[in-house]
Write a structure and sequence with these properties.
The protein is α/β, with parallel strands linked by helices. The chain has helices at 26-43, 66-81, 97-107, 114-125, 129-143, 175-210, 228-236, 278-283, 289-292, 308-321, 359-370, 385-403; strands spanning 12-20, 45-54, 88-91, 110-113, 217-222, 253-259, 262-268, 296-302, 329-334, 374-376. Strand 9 (329-334), helix 11 (359-370) and strand 10 (374-376) form a beta-alpha-beta unit.
Length: 417
Amino acid sequence: MKEFVISEAQTEKAVLVGLITQTQNERKTNEYLDELAFLAETAGAEVVSRFTQKLDTPNSVTYVGKGKLSEIREYLQSREEEGEEIGMVIFDDELSAKQIRNIENELKVKILDRTSLILDIFAMRAQTANAKTQVELAQYKYMLPRLQRLWTHLERQGGGSGAGGGKGSVGLRGPGETQLEMDRRIILNRMSLLKQRLADIDTQKSTQRKNRGRLIRVALVGYTNVGKSTLMNLMAKSDVFAENKLFATLDTTVRKVIIENLPFLLSDTVGFIRKLPTDLVESFKSTLDEVREADLLLHVVDISHPDFEEQIKVVDKTIADLGAGGKPTILVFNKIDAYTYVKKDADDLTPKTKENVTLEELMNTWMAKLNDNCIFISAKSKANFEQLKTMLYKKVRELHVQKYPYNDFLYQTYDEE
């Protein structure tokens, strides 16, 4: 995968490219590029510039138009003349093999897309054999349709309809064809092996889940970098890795938590993100089984993020895609200590925007809509943490009585004399 991704966490300078389309306005494009910049920073890159273009749909040949590509090339050349080399250009959408090849030929630098960047971060973060296997499988799935561009140096000039891009054997004659087929076979065999390994791991995990006794399972879910691992550490008094970077957690961590006299299992799962590669979701389904088998979901939301409502929709859609929709859920709005708003002047008669909404107004709105199924906390400062524990105790107890009616003795309390 070195051809596609940053192989090591090192500071490389990068340029970001995004499109403003009919379905994605300028504000949303800028938000996506902010997220892409955070992804690049997590992978070890430094973003020095951004380029956007208005197009109805991405150009099938070069993603952006020829004029914009020339503008990017001129920028890269000017920076190089000033002694600052920019090593890569990162695109906000997944690129085809043809697009990558054409853009590379024009810009002469490393080309990445959002998918390859996410895969690289996952490869950096993977610690256990399970996570490493899942990441490797996703990388091979990404690489397979892009194999041809790895062997362009072996192609011979062909006749007829041209030397590249045609159907059949055009552009693939000679040793390149043999090497391509050999690589394809090696990758397919490796993918079969990885799938079998994941199936074996999944069987082991299923056995582990069955052996956990009659306990209610609670899963922390949410967008990446919303504070799930920090909350996990607070509730389970554990030491799950937590960092202000995307995808700090890849492996599902399960801990036994006791609130008063009620034990239950709490699991921390990988965070979701917009435009999460389908192959990655597919590969990580065994990890996300904890979500599918959970009795209660704690959906953690970063209330300080300007676009938290869309993040909620992304997570809800991903959970539904996993077949875990409709489960009892508590919406946990985290990071209230970081929430900010812009106060409107008394003589400002323009309509109020979401930037002008106070935390109290948000709390009243969401709590009125969800009744007692949402709470506002700060895992960092422990604000309202005791209220969360009380809410969780009540919900878990209700579920336990329904699922294990003969275990009611768990809730007997004895006052000390």
